[in-house]
Amino acid sequence: MMEIPVASAGQRLDQALAALLPDYSRSRIQDWIKHERVTVNGRFLGVKDKVWGGEKVQVLPETHPAEVPAMPEDIALAIVYEDDALLVVNKPAGLVVHPGSGNWQGTMLNALLHHAPQLAGVPRAGIVHRLDKDTSGLLVVAKTLTAQTNLVRQLQARSVKREYLAVAHGLIAQDGKVDARIGRHPSQRTKMAVVHSGREAVTHYTVLEHLGRYTLIRCVLETGRTHQIRVHLQSIGHALVGDPVYGRASQIAALPDFKRQALHATRLGLLHPVSGVHLEWQVEPPADFQALLDHLRMEIT
Predict the structure, then answer these.
(1) Residue 114: phi, psi to the nearest 5?
(2) What sequence ranges are listed for the domain RNA-binding S4 (predicted)?
(3) 158/276 same-domain check
(4) How many folded domains does the chain comprise?
(5) CA of 185: how far to CAs of 82, 178, 192, 196, 263, in Å?
């Protein structure tokens, strides 16, 4: 039980508690208030309600999901390759790779902990790179700390080959490269954007097929920034088909049956972290991606 000091008179409840509980963030305290983990003189108040000093406050702290260790979950994984040092997964669209806001369970990390319990001893369960929730395709996981360190160094040296198939809006006339820095969007903080203050990002693309008002391309990454291909293609006027974040509403409406960004990680190549042998894997796009291509091809015949 705590008492609101007179010095806090006239402040909002969350402000007064932030001063009393400096070890916790304001957003955490606001969550406790909203979830009725805080009483003031025995009553639940709102975040913006004022206090006047002398009130008796009781706080029942709630552990944040991010502070709870991830648990193994029996989620099927499409394993393309596995040995004692690494495994390669063909991730389906819709599966979140790592727990985060709104997705604390049911992720690929939870599935990995069930498949290989020893991954509990490797940071991030061996995950060294990510794919967006609605991007399908290949992703490598290290099974030991040594292998993870090696793979991270390969990624930093840009020697890991990552190749994607993508369907973009508009007619892309020829092969090209986007070399544009990517960082947080200046006003929409959940989005990324091409910004001068961002981190270096380079995407190479090759035209594979023209599909009427759309283009099938192959993208090869030099760097691995968040949403890199999606942001880079939007920046040159060719947002991905189905992209709910970087595409326009009219573009989404044009192909309403395709429910995600048309992006598939089709090829992955790297040096084995133990033997040093070059390994490479390739997987075809999933059924929804293939159905999209079939639909677009039928429209132009």
Answers:
(1) -75, -40
(2) 11-43
(3) yes
(4) 2
(5) 38, 18, 5, 11, 21
Tally of residues, the chain = 301
User: Which residue is associated with the tokens 């369970």?
Assistant: 105
CA dist., res. 211 & res. 169, Å (int): 10
> Per the structure block, which two tokens stand in for 161?
């080959």
Q: Which residue has the tokens 């060719």?
A: 238
Per the structure, the complete domain to which residue 205 belongs is given by 79-299
Question: Which backbone phi and psi does 167 adopt, to 5 degrees?
Answer: -110, 120
pLDDT single digits (tens) 26-63:
888 998 999 899 999 999 999 999 999 999 999 988 76
Looking at the fold, whether 90 and 210 belong to one and the same domain comes out as: yes
User: Among 264, 223, 207, which residue's Cα sits nearest to residue 241?
Assistant: 264
In the 8-state DSSP scheme, what is residue 93? T
SS3 119: helix
Judge whether 53 lies within some domain. Answer: yes
Annotation marks residue 132 as catalytic = yes
Task: Single out the residue of 76, 15, 73 nearest to residue 47, CA to CA.
Answer: 15
| Strands (E) located in the chain | 2-3, 38-40, 56-59, 79-82, 86-91, 136-142, 161-169, 176-179, 182-184, 192-194, 202-211, 214-221, 263-271, 278-282
Rounded CA separation 169/189 (Å):
25
Residue 72 lies in a domain: no
Instruction: Please report whether residue 69 resides in a domain.
Output: no
**Which of 14, 132, 134, 243 is the catalytic position?**
132
pLDDT at 70: 81
Same domain, 160 and 51: no
